[in-house]
Design brief:
Layout: E1 19-23, E2 29-35, E3 47-49
Antiparallel strand pairs: 1-2, 2-3
């Protein structure tokens, strides 16, 4: 049993304060964005998807809609 499996949804790039979503043609955020945790390199900021993750995640409280609740039996 993996006690961390439910946390992966709330700890993805889409909920990180360093994630900046790329706007689509209709001015709504899409699944693609940039990670701005570290200074850019020659090619710019790293491109990431909103469902990617890394060890530098820092929760953006404004990006979290609702994390799934885990209910334990017993």
């Amino acid at each position: 049993m993996d006690p961390w499996k439910h946390r992966r949804l709330a700890m993805s790039c889409g909920t990180c304060m360093w994630f900046v979503a790329k706007l689509r043609a209709d001015d709504k955020p899409g699944p693609l964005g940039r990670c701005r945790k570290h200074a850019p390199v020659m090619s710019g900021y790293p491109v990431v998807f909103d469902n990617d993750w890394c060890g530098d995640h820092k929760l953006d409280e404004n990006a979290v809609v609702s994390a799934p609740t885990v209910r334990r039996k017993g």
